[in-house]
Amino acid sequence: MEPVKKDAKTNPSATANLFSQVFFCWLNPLFRIGYKRRLEEDDMYKVLPEDGSERLGEELQSLWDHEVQKAAKDLRTPKLTKVLIKCYWKPYAVLGIFTLIEEVIKVIQPVFLGKLIQYFEKYDPDNMDALYEAFGYAAGVSLSTLILAITHHLYFFHVQRTGMKMRVAMCHMIYKKALCLSSAAMGKTTTGQIVNLLSNDVNKFDEVTIFLHFLWVGPLQAAAVLGLLWVEIGPSCLAGMAVLVILMPTQTMFGRLFSKFRSKTAALTDNRIRTMNEVVSGIRIIKMYAWEKPFSALVNEVRRKEISKIMSSSYLRGLNMASFFAASKIIVFITFTVYVLLGNTISASRVFVTVSLYSAVRLTVTLFFPSAVEKLSETRISVRRIKEEKQEPSVEIQDLICYWDKVNVQLLPPRLLDKPTVLSPVPPSHFPQSSLLSSILGELPHDKGVLKVKGQLTYASQQPWVFPGTIRSNILFGKELHPQKYEKVLRACALKRDMELLPEGDLTLIGDRGATLSGGQKARVNLARAVYQDADIYLLDDPLSAVDAEVGRHLFEQCICGILKNKPRILVTHQLQYLQAANQILVLKEGHMVARGTYSELQRSGVDFTSLLKREEEGPQAPGAETESRSPRSRTLSQNSVVSHTSSIRSVKDGTEQLPAEPVQTVVEESRSEGTIGVGLYVKYLKAGANILVLIGVVLLQFLAQAAYILQDWWLAYWAGEQEKLNVNGTVTVQNGVNVTEELSLDFYLGIYAGLTGATLIFGFARSLLMFNVLVKAAQSLHNRMFNSILRTPVRFFDINPIGRVLNRFSKDIGQLDAALPWTFVDFIQIFLQIIGVIAVAASVIPWILIPLVPLVIVFLFLRRYFLQTSRDVKRLESTTRSPVFSHLSSSLQGLWTIRAFRAEERFQNTFDTYQDLHSESWFLFLVTSRWFAVRLDGMCAVFVTITAFGCLLLRDQVEAGSVGLALSYAVTLMGMFQWGVRQSAEVENMMTSVERVVEYTELESEAPWETQKRPPPEWPSQGLITFDRVSFSYSSDGPVVLKDMKAMFRPKEKVGIVGRTGAGKSSLVSALFRLAEPEGRIYIDGVLTSEIGLHDLRQKMSIIPQDPVLFTGTMRKNLDPFSQHTDEDLWNALQEVQLKSVVEELPNKMETVLAESGSNFSVGQRQLVCLARAVLRKNRILIIDEATANVDPRTDELIQKTIREKFRECTVLTIAHRLNTIIDSDRILVRALHSYTMITQLGTCLLYSILCFIYSTVQKFGVSGFVCLITVYSCSEANPCEKLPRN
């Protein structure tokens, strides 16, 4: 497989010196690049060896395997948490030392502050010793601030990196487990569920590591602070600590409630993403059935439940944040109320030492400790969810009994093959065609009997599978390139001409990061991959059904019977004309082997096979019907044939015969906006959540809360100042001979203090809850608008945007809007207002503090801009490098059987690791850029604290103790708060890129309205007359025209067959009829101009049986009748008509049985019959069949044709043909060529002659048997005696 990206730059952190490591100076060159231009993937640094996905994953995997073995011995369930602790406890424990140093300094700093204020309280201009001592304390305050800045960010960087390692290791293990999922397990889980594990659950490891150490540091710090407070204010401190102690369990309770909501939300999110996955995968069918509304209702209902849980947890978060901001106010209020009521007088040093000590412990106790509890409980849920997921060549089969989910499939052949041979099992429709191969591959577990495989297997799946990468890497599949062999395989698989016409040949990128191949090209690449492997036994699951007759014959002769002629091959096929070349034929019916032998032996034996062959032998195929057989991602109409011409063959015999090849469609690169986030986006975001009046109310409430917050602090300082004046100038009165000092009115000062505290609480809680309400509603509104926009956008959008990209917006980006963004946004606003308040208070006390503040603010703003230029790009790179991780997981789950058959698990695991490393590179940069910024901000704050501390000493004659206390305590709090506020503003801007991405999808181009004022009559169309009048059609404004000036009329009740080569515009005709893109010209149905009515009015009145049958997760009833318009009797009758009644009756809950994702517990033929049942139920006058029988066997084909003849006798039927016997009894046949068509209108024998003349060259290639077969089918289906036809 080709490398994911070019060689990355060496990571400079590996060789950086100590100073550079501490201050992250090694990042400076990156910031310089980021400031000048947009950062690209090539600018990222190589992941450090110790952070590599493979190394981390294997390390954790080996410990997990050991735990599983040990648990099995001890008869207990293995514990993933235990393994994680065992793997990471040592490096993580060392980081605890950083936390300890940080918290010790936080406790010591207020002591220095108190001593400094005491110098001013006892100020003596002549006492130089006291002055030198004060300078020492000022240096202590400054130094402790600087050390705090350094240790705090080093700690955070390393714990976040540990979190990253845990996440990467878990992702590695989840992917490894996904590659080993059995078919039964795949039925129980969904792609959406595994994607959600990778996008949301593992992210909890990034968060939990940050706070975990505070679980033990918190109580220690609280004990130290209690001791210091006791010394300072005596027993009154117990009152404040009591409030803290009460707050701790309250916060812990919040944490528990969070986890409860989180587990419920996660299940609903899984459900929503799974539904979205199906909607995006099956969007073509949903549009053609006009089923947007039931799916919209389904998603909206899941989303409504999810949002109600998110809203509840957001209110909890709001309470949590408000209590965090109010905590310090309540604690200080209670402490000083008790202190003054006990008869003490307050002083500046006591007030500010107490406030500072409480500030130090408050952050740990009310924020970090509860966060640790909350994140720990969330992570435990994630861990629980992850744990639940996580010779001579021959084949011998004897008395084998296998079950797909206990639906019995029996195979009873003796030894199958032990020499080079072609074995062709011929399965009828109700035999899940791949079951025999699945059992040989080991995908279908066998219950009884013998299954022995000697030799290496290789496999070509029925639904062609390609993974994102180059065409060459898809064919080589990890093998070395041998040019001669490779050329030979390309020629044998008819790919040579295609490769020559591609812009970059076989190095053209396909899949999520490149071009889209047509179904026929995918099928040939799929076959070439199997052929290129040097295996002993080849399992080929119907590789010929996806290509036209000519190519099919070439593949059979040059590839299956050419290159592979000396190898054992097991070929499952419905194409009975190839059976004569088989060494052995195995006939399977309802899971049993009914006959086995050579072609001539079976014809002589008289078993059911002979009648099967005579009645149902497949006629030669319509020319060019290269079918678009597709994976679940694929389209339903053969839309890739839009710009494609037919697949190519350069005949190996003479090298001259040549057909035009198919160009490929390229996938557009994911948009990644540049520059700053505009104010307009913030307005859009907020207006999505509330109207202007509510927003004005929110703003007022914010300012009121902040005013109350500031006034409370100011009042305390004012009270201390008044008390000091009284102490200095205190008047003493004599009462009853006792000296009594005059005191302040306690009721007045305490009353106002209590009132302000109450106002702070009320406004604080109200603003928090209201803001969360607005922002969560904004998330809901934007999600609904994005979903509606996705439903209404033309189909073209889904052809050029891979499924992973669309799902990423619904999983990761909406996840950000639901949880992370509201919290960060509210936090930023509250901190921003606090910073303004702090500066205002400090400036009112000491106006000169503004002098050093102005240059610092200017530098701050420049630094922020400088940082954001790079940070925003890093964040966007992180988003875009995450998509391939999900895409790789998705495509691997779709091609699971192929990967396992080729034993390519290890290589795919390595590619996954490479994608993970690419994402780790951007995540690592995201972590270090944040720390680079924070260290610089905190360093500047330390400078500000130093200036303030020494400034107070230099101006010692002009300042009061209270002013110094207020200025310094605020400067110290500002230090942590300022940098956090600036970083939160940057974080909000980073997260707004998710809003930007969602808003981008809310403004997608919309197709025509579903309903218009002009409504057709209720019984329309009553006849089914379709008229094309000079119709031209293109899938996009800049795309090629695929229908040009087409004029045609399809009469009521007429059966019209449509044939033509790939790219001739057969399916485009249907797309024009359904208005999947708006055609030019006029299309009338029963005289009504289709472009004037709504899309739903049009699409609901036509039925379509698509080529690729699409079923959705949900009950069988919902799949047949999502609007609940029909009775049970109608549904059972429809199932009876298509011979599925017995199958559905055998299901555990009959009609209420929930189907697996994409209906994978039904065979392709059965899924096609469900689509036919839908058409039967709709009873429309117009039926379109788009190559519906391409992937089914002749018996199912005949059943479908018979049902159509009987049930749709009164309807106009347009059939895009893959097999001639499908359209042989049509009234007329439309033969499409690029930009032209021929309508063959003669009836009877002349019709047959016309067809045979038109495809004479094709029929020739099938020999006499194919020719006779055609005539037989025709004579059986029409009342035309065969005698009239020439016998020779």
UniProtKB/TrEMBL annotation:
Ranges for domain ABC transporter: 395-615, 1026-1268
Record's bilayer topology term: Multi-pass membrane protein
Compartment(s) of residence: Apical cell membrane; Basolateral cell membrane; Early endosome membrane; Endoplasmic reticulum membrane
Reaction equation(s) it catalyzes: hydrogencarbonate(in) = hydrogencarbonate(out); 3',5'-cyclic AMP(in) + ATP + H2O = 3',5'-cyclic AMP(out) + ADP + phosphate + H(+); prostaglandin E2(in) + ATP + H2O = prostaglandin E2(out) + ADP + phosphate + H(+); an S-substituted glutathione(in) + ATP + H2O = an S-substituted glutathione(out) + ADP + phosphate + H(+)
Origin: domain of life: Eukaryota
Keywords, alphabetical: ATP-binding, Cell membrane, Chloride, Chloride channel, Endoplasmic reticulum, Endosome, Glycoprotein, Ion channel, Ion transport, Isomerase, Lipid transport, Membrane, Nucleotide-binding, Phosphoprotein, Repeat, Translocase, Transmembrane, Transmembrane helix, Transport
Cofactors that this protein relies on: Mg(2+)
Keyword hit for Phosphoprotein: yes
EC number(s) on file: 5.6.1.6, 7.6.2.2, 7.6.2.3
Gene3D superfamilies hit by this protein: ABC transporter type 1, transmembrane domain, P-loop containing nucleotide triphosphate hydrolases
Summary of subunit composition and partner proteins: Interacts (via PDZ-binding motif) with SNX27 (via PDZ domain); this interaction accelerates MRP4 internalization.
Protein name in UniProt: Cystic fibrosis transmembrane conductance regulator
Species this protein is from: Oncorhynchus tshawytscha (Chinook salmon)
Gene: ABCC4
